[in-house]
């Protein structure tokens, strides 16, 4: 029996379930290596919901483990047993080659997390189908939509959403769910879900994804619009395959208005299961698209018109912590029927978007008459031309995405996507209100050099100038500190300094190590501009790489590896403590890069003279050392081998 919606302050609102279980954070890489599908993903989502005060207004559920019988509705017995038995393995690194090919990794907690992820989606789906909840969001990992009947892939082990759909249809006829709409807005094609319901007309699977003619993960033809299902399921599989990256709110909403929504009206589902990956979000290092939290909220709001708003969201991908936290909050606010977040999308779809939408409508109109009409040309003529993209000759995904992002950001102004400019303006004004101490241990210890990152320009020893920060106001304070981290020099050459190593500090502490650091009090906005420049990205990004959520996280955990694609060398922000209310942050390399330095895979290399002199000047002018002492300090750091044992991890 459906329960009455809860009431507070006389305002009726909907019962929204949230599943969060910290146990799912235990699934991690066996060797601690950085990976985009990382434990903090679900933590930041949860923390941000708490911070916004929405968790108290929801029904909070702990995780539930899936039953083998339910998993076997869509997976083979062998596959279920393989995932289950992975708990007892001794050596997880031995499967490295296989896992690299299939984009998965395992540790001793993977099985438990995978059972919880699937079971939790089943639990929310059951409660929504029963009417105990109006809707819900299962904040789970590992994700599910790539997992096939007999195969883990794409960071996925069990197909959480598919298990829940089959459970409702096959195990709970008493709940009266006969037709399920699966909407998959993760930036990757939901290949697993497509296969599992290929011949099943009870489940309409809709996936919108970056496809690029099969060049984007998971690749091949599976994600093409020609894949419409077979047998009784013919017409019940709809793919919207983007030809390019950089798609945003305008493109997604066009697919909603001209494909998904008319079809959903005809299909008239009893419940909607949403494969809610947030990797099409702006700033995502894997997706290269630009959907805003506002865009997600509108897409969800449009789905609320169906199945009496019975929507079960399950997290899939999404790898920019800031973006996934904000997008998730925007969605939960829609489920709660709060005043939706403000925003506007004045951007126009790409030319390729209309091409794809028209092709999909044509391919599927035999099954869905509402797709038959030709779209008015006054609509499809409004389009943004596909910009010329410089193609990278590297096939590494990280590099392509970094390139893609740079390209995307540098075109913002000429494309006149007003939505983007607004996003950019608002992150800057938010972060300009927060102060941090930036702790420098390399050339930035010399104030005139550091000021180049703020005011722009070039000092002695630099081979090229810096553009500086958008906000050029000088640091609000300067002080010095000594920290138990090891200073060392590595790499053979850099853009700014030419040949020779540059300074890094080990994020691991050891009481025997001492690094002197010069602290500058700057805004978090300026800190991001320093990060961009330190990593060779002197462009105006539409989103910060180190935002407020990341700041909270680094204060809690000590260290936050940034998206590897964005920050190849100084990609790790480390919190060294606080000075009064203000956190002390430094930037160095990630632990996996430390390991490469320690193993010799990337060379340690002493600093060139001009670079070393900059550090020495900083230490001398800062009153820390005499010139001789400063030279000895640098020599010592440059000549000792780097050990990583015996250190404590932040
Ligand atoms: N060149 C989800 O978002 N990328 N999975 C492999 C190989 C794998 C994404 C790249 C991306 C998997 C749930
Ligand atoms: Zn994805």
Automatic annotation (TrEMBL):
The keyword Ion transport does not apply. This is histone deacetylase. It is an enzyme of class 3 (hydrolase). It comes from Brassica napus (Rape). Gene3D superfamilies: Gamma-glutamyl cyclotransferase-like, Histone deacetylase domain. InterPro entries: HDACs (IPR000286), His_deacetylse_dom (IPR023801), His_deacetylse_dom_sf (IPR037138), Ureohydrolase_dom_sf (IPR023696). Its main location: nucleus. GO terms for molecular function: histone deacetylase activity; histone deacetylase activity, hydrolytic mechanism; metal ion binding. One of its GO terms (biological process) is regulation of developmental process. Its EC number is 3.5.1.98. Belongs to the histone deacetylase family. HD type 2 subfamily. GO terms for cellular component: cytoplasm; histone deacetylase complex. It is found in: Nucleus. Pfam families: Hist_deacetyl. Its cofactor is Zn(2+). It catalyses: N(6)-acetyl-L-lysyl-[histone] + H2O = L-lysyl-[histone] + acetate. The keyword DNA damage does not apply. Keywords: Chromatin regulator, Hydrolase, Metal-binding, Nucleus, Repressor, Transcription, Transcription regulation, Zinc. Residues 35-334 form the Histone deacetylase domain.
């Amino acid at each position: 029996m459906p329960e009455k919606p809860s009431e507070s302050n006389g305002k009726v609102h909907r019962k929204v379930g949230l599943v969060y279980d910290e146990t799912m954070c235990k699934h991690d890489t066996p060797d601690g290596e950085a990976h985009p599908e990382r434990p903090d993903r679900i933590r930041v989502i949860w923390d941000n919901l708490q911070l916004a005060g929405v968790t108290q207004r929801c029904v909070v559920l702990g995780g539930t483990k899936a039953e083998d019988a339910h998993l076997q509705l869509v997976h083979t017995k062998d596959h279920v047993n393989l995932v289950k038995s992975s708990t007892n393995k001794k050596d997880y690194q031995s499967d490295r080659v296989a896992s690299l090919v299939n984009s998965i990794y395992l540790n001793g907690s993977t099985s438990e997390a995978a059972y919880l992820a699937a079971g939790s989606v089943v639990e929310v789906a059951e409660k929504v189908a029963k009417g105990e909840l109006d809707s819900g969001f299962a904040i789970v990992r590992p994700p599910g939509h790539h997992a096939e009947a007999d195969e883990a892939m794409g960071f996925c082990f069990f197909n959480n959403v598919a298990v829940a759909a089959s459970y409702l249809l096959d195990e709970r006829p008493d709940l009266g769910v006969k037709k399920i709409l699966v909407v998959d807005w993760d930036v990757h094609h939901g290949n697993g879900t497509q296969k599992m319901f290929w011949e099943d007309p009870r489940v309409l699977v809709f996936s919108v994804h970056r496809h690029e003619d099969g060049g984007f993960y998971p690749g091949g033809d599976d994600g093409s619009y020609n894949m419409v299902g077979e047998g009784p399921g013919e017409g019940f599989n709809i793919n919207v395959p983007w030809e390019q990256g950089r798609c945003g709110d305008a493109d997604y909403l066009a697919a909603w208005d001209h494909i998904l929504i008319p079809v959903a009206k005809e299909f008239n589902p009893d419940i909607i299961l949403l494969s809610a990956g947030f990797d099409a979000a702006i700033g995502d290092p894997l997706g290269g698209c630009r959907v805003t939290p506002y865009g997600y909220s509108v897409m969800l709001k449009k789905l609320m018109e169906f199945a009496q708003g019975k929507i079960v969201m399950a997290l899939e991908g999404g790898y920019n912590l800031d973006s996934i936290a904000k997008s998730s909050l925007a969605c939960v606010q829609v489920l709660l029927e709060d005043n939706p977040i403000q925003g506007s999308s004045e951007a126009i779809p790409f030319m390729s978007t209309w091409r794809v939408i028209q092709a999909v409508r044509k391919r599927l109109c035999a099954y869905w008459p509402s797709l038959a009409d030709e779209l008015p040309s006054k609509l499809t003529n409004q389009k943004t031309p596909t910009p010329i993209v410089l193609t990278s000759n590297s096939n590494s995904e990280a590099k392509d995405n970094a390139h893609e992002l740079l390209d995307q950001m540098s075109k913002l102004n000429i494309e006149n996507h007003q939505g983007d400019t607004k996003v950019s303006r608002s992150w800057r004004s938010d972060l300009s209100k927060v102060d941090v101490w930036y702790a420098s241990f390399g050339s930035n210890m010399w104030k005139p050099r550091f000021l180049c990152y703020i005011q722009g320009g070039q000092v002695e020893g630099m081979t090229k100038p810096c553009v500086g920060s958008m906000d050029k106001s000088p640091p609000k304070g300067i002080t010095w500190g000594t920290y138990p981290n090891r200073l060392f020099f590595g790499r053979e050459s850099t853009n700014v300094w030419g040949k020779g190593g540059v300074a890094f500090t080990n994020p691991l502490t050891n009481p025997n190590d001492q690094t002197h650091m010069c602290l500058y009090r700057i805004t978090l906005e300026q800190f991001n501009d320093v990060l961009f420049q330190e990593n060779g990205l002197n462009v105006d990004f539409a989103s910060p790489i180190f935002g407020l959520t990341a700041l909270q996280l680094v204060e809690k955990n000590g260290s936050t590896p940034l998206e590897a694609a964005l920050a190849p060398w100084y990609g790790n922000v480390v919190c060294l403590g606080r000075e009064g209310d203000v956190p002390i942050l430094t930037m160095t390399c990630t632990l996996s890069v430390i390991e490469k330095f320690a193993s010799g895979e990337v060379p340690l290399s002493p600093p060139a003279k001009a670079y070393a002199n900059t550090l020495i000047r900083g230490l001398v002018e800062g009153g820390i050392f005499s010139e001789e002492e400063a030279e000895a300090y640098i020599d010592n750091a440059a000549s000792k081998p780097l050990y990583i044992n015996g250190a404590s991890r932040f």
